[in-house]
Design brief:
With about 180 residues, this protein is an alpha+beta fold. It has four helices and eight strands; from the N terminus they run E-H-E-E-H-H-E-E-E-E-H-E. Strand 2 and strand 3 form a beta hairpin.
Length: about 180
Amino acid sequence: MEFFVYGRDRVAAAGLKGRLTGEHWDFMDRYGEVLVARGPTLTGQGDEAESTGSMHIVELQDVGAARAFAYEEPYYLGGVFESVLLCGFRNVSGRTMWDFADAVDGYGRFLVIRMDAGEIAPVVSEHVILYGELLELEGDGRLGWAALVEAADMEDAAAVLPGGDGRTEVHHWCFGGRSS
């Protein structure tokens, strides 16, 4: 089963997050073979951007393992996160972020979250890194959609998951991990 985990940083948590990054990476190293995607959300693109959160899509045995992944993580335990969104994930694209090879110079990367259980048109774009359904932890009910995309700007990124009732979030995002 795949799970979507998005921890939103508390205001002014940057220093604490920086001090815990080594422990975070050590924790994530244990999951290297089962990570589908990972990376921070940011205030913008470039070297001056600050972290606003941490997103992971991971394949785990069950809901208990997903809860352990989300709530035993050093950023969570250390008090970095204001909140954590933990959902099941159905990977409609069928790939990982490491499968993405169509990067475009000048485009940014974004995490798009649409909390709306409605249907969407199939997402067909060479700029989609991956996308899928956000699901209830206990059951298969759809809660929404999430996509990792490359786009010229936030508006273009949001257009990947059109429609809904306006509860679409778009965050600057980049590939994460030790080698990024």
